[in-house]
């Protein structure tokens, strides 16, 4: 593993390696406080994503390293017309690892093809966001103790949600995962995910419109936002919007052991009344995101205790 | 049937799907050649019903990857002294560089002109190629 561009580039063994290291970092946080002393991460963010950028920077700082970079395209040399390849080549002379966010699909791959230091895709348009996927996997593994034998409900916008597509792709590589896809008809999972991922892996999946009917079966509920502009008409949006908002009533018949995940930021799809529920893990998930980035940075830089 | 002279020395691209010869002509940039190029469209074929044929009266280096990508069933015959001296077998190339162009407006190749357009074979059975940057399917 030289770079992390597409999560499907990773073997299950490599993922397991990263997650196991992350687990050790959770247990022995102090031991890792200087493992990256003298190393630098460049966060090249061509579009703002404060959450993801801060997560990478906090990860590097907690490992003893330091950070540099930019957080919008207009403050960068792109504003002067420099290519991604040239920017990456230059930055590679200053930093030891690059985390790149870019509105265009494939930009981090272009960077990776032009430098000798590791490049991490921190989100390329609506395409891939591998560290979110690793975050989700770590959260599930730490909170349930496994990445197999799970019934996972994905709820909301399953058509455009890249985090959902990516996580489904990854989870379909594990044993005995049952997918329950909860969405309005308009926002169903695309056919190519069904054909190339779910059918191809022989995964068990069903599609439903309402979460109440499947709630008792779920081990994991992965919520995403349903955006008004994704609907064909306002009437449908108004008719359906409350079906995709998680509130305490909908959780009445859920398992005690349910884990509620959300990639954040949340708007209104999870009622704040759910936040106090011990099954609500979305803020903890953000912490797992930082930890899995620590593990990833260490692996890519070849660092160990 | 319309007769086109056989060539002494050169290349015959045979068993091109009927009607696809102009596409082959364009992808191989045959318009850049100075030698004679004959295109026969919808010639009778015992095996395929009708087919297209392209005859090139010079031993040029044909890009076999481009042809394999377009259609691996095309046959490439090398002609010397009026006879076929070699038949080249085509294969689907694993990767094609600057042959097809990515048409996804969200792809980095749409804003950065100097990036090579690279597609990788992802499904051999259905001959599907996808852009390495954005996963867009190649359209022929
Ligand atoms: Zn592309």
Q: Sheet with the most strands of chain B?
A: 5 strands, antiparallel
Along the chain, the helix and strand elements of chain B come as: EHEEHEEEEE
CATH topology of the largest domain in chain A: Rossmann fold
Please identify the top-level CATH class of the largest domain in chain B. Alpha Beta
Helix percentage range of chain B: 10-25%
CATH uppermost class of the largest domain in chain A: Alpha Beta
Q: Which superfamily, in CATH terms, is the homologous superfamily of the largest domain in chain A?
A: Aspartate/ornithine carbamoyltransferase
Question: What's the helix and strand layout?
Answer:
The complex is a heterodimer of chains A (305) and B (140).
Chain A: H1 12-27, E1 40-45, H2 50-62, E2 66-70, H3 84-91, E3 97-102, H4 107-112, E4 119-124, H5 130-144, E5 150-155, H6 162-171, E6 177-182, H7 191-201, E7 204-208, E8 220-223, H8 234-240, E9 259-261, H9 282-301
Parallel strand pairs in A: 1-2, 1-3, 3-4, 5-6, 5-8, 6-7, 8-9
Helix pairs in contact in A: 1-5, 1-9, 2-9, 5-6, 5-9
Chain B: E1 10-17, H1 21-27, E2 37-45, E3 49-56, H2 64-70, E4 75-80, E5 83-88, E6 95-97, E7 118-123, E8 128-131
Account of the 3D structure:
The complex is a heterodimer of chains A (305) and B (140). Chain A is of the alpha/beta class. Chain A folds into two domains: 136 residues, Rossmann fold, CATH 3.40.50; 155 residues, Rossmann fold (3-Layer(aba) Sandwich), CATH 3.40.50.1370. Chain A has nine helices and nine strands. In chain A, the strands form two sheets. A five-stranded parallel beta sheet of chain A has the order 7-6-5-8-9, covered by helices on one side. Chain A has a four-stranded parallel beta sheet with strand order 2-1-3-4. The longest helix of chain A has 20 residues. Chain A is globular and about 55 Å long. The two termini of chain A are 19 Å apart. The mean pLDDT of chain A is 94. The relative contact order of chain B is 0.18. In chain B, strand 2 and strand 3 form a beta hairpin. Chain B is elongated, with a radius of gyration of 17 Å. The mean pLDDT of chain B is 92. Chain B has two domains: 79 residues, 2-Layer Sandwich (Alpha-Beta Plaits); 37 residues, no CATH class. Helix content of chain B is 10%, strand content 36%. With 140 residues, chain B is mainly beta. Chain B has a five-stranded antiparallel beta sheet with strand order 2-3-1-4-5, covered by helices on one side. Chain B has two helices and eight strands; from the N terminus they run βαββαβββββ. Chain B starts with 9 loop residues before the first strand and ends in a 9-residue tail after the last strand. At the A-B interface, helix 4 of A face loops of B. Bound molecules: zinc ion.
């Amino acid at each position: 593993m030289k770079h992390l561009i597409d999560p499907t580039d990773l073997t299950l063994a490599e993922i397991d390696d990263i997650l196991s290291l992350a687990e050790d970092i959770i247990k022995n946080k102090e031991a890792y406080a200087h493992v990256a002393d003298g190393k630098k991460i460049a966060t090249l963010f061509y579009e703002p994503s404060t959450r993801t950028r801060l997560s990478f920077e906090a990860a590097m700082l907690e490992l003893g390293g330091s950070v540099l970079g930019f957080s919008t395209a207009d403050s960068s040399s792109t504003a002067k017309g420099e290519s991604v390849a040239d920017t990456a080549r230059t930055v590679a002379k200053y930093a030891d690892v690059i985390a790149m966010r870019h509105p265009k699909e494939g930009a981090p791959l272009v960077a990776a093809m032009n430098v000798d230091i590791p490049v991490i895709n921190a989100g390329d348009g609506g395409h891939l966001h591998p560290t979110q996927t690793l975050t989700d996997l770590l959260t599930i593994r730490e909170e349930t103790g496994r990445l197999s034998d799970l019934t996972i409900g994905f709820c909301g916008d399953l058509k455009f949600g890249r985090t959902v597509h990516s996580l489904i792709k990854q989870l379909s590589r594990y044993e005995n995962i049952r997918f329950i896809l909860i969405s309005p008809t308009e926002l169903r999972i695309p056919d190519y995910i069904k054909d190339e991922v779910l059918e191809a892996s022989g995964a068990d999946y069903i599609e439903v419109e309402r979460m109440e009917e499947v709630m008792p079966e779920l081990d994991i509920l992965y919520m995403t936002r349903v955006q008004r502009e994704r609907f064909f008409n306002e009437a449908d949006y108004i008719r359906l919007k409350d079906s995709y908002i998680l509130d305490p009533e909908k959780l009445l018949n859920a398992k005690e052991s349910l884990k509620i995940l959300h990639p954040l930021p949340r708007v209104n799809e999870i009622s704040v009344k759910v936040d106090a529920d011990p099954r609500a893990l979305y803020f903890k998930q953000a912490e797992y995101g930082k930890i899995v980035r620590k593990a990833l940075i260490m692996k890519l830089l070849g660092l160990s205790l | 049937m319309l007769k086109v002279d056989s060539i002494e020395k050169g290349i015959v691209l045979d068993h091109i799907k009927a009607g696809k010869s102009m596409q082959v002509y364009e992808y191989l940039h045959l318009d850049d050649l100075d030698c004679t190029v004959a295109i026969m469209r919808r010639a009778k074929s015992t095996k395929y019903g009708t087919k297209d044929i392209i005859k090139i009266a010079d031993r040029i280096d044909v890009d076999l990857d481009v042809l394999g990508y377009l259609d691996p069933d095309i046959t490439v015959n090398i002609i010397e002294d009026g006879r076929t001296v070699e038949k080249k077998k085509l294969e689907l190339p694993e990767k094609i560089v600057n042959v097809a162009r990515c048409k996804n407006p969200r792809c980095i190749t749409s804003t950065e002109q100097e990036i090579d357009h690279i597609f990788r074979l992802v499904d051999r059975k259905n001959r599907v190629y996808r852009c390495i940057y954005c996963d867009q399917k190649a359209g022929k």
